[in-house]
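does this look right to u?? cobalt (II) ion version
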Amino acid sequence: MSVLEIVKYPNKILKQKTKIVRGITAETKKLIKNMIETMKKNNGIGLAANQVGVSLRILTVALPDENKKITEAVLINPVIQKKSGRVFEEEGCLSFPGLYLKIKRAKYVKVNAVNERGKVITIEGEGLLIRVLQHEIDHLDGKTFIDRLPVLKKLKTIREINRRIKKGNW
Ligand code: CO
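got this back:
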């Protein structure tokens, strides 16, 4: 296993829609293992494949439960089937180091996907896992959390990011 380099904004790969996974090969499995390793090493709770430079529709999550036990999940070709409600909470992103933004998301979501063993899985509900899944599925669609901001707030945020990049603080 190896820790991969995280692609940071404004790298173009983050703006491109990722490709559907057509078959789970040894290479796919290796990528998934490396994504989990990379996510944990960076204290991330979610990671999309394009954040490690691979434009494929794969995401990983790792969330601690009430007993601090980490639940890991791999979603290949995830599709949001249903969503409802609204929540407004703070998020971070490994591709935007040190930046935290309040983002509007659906409160309830139902997602279908395939796991790393090719089994169809459904995840539905509310809470942090559901928020992380929406954030990561956005990545797979070529969107980042700043794309969810109101337009003026987005422009202000981009200016702030550019300041940080210039200062070498990114
Ligand atoms: Co992110």
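The radius of gyration is 16 Å. idk if thats expected tbh
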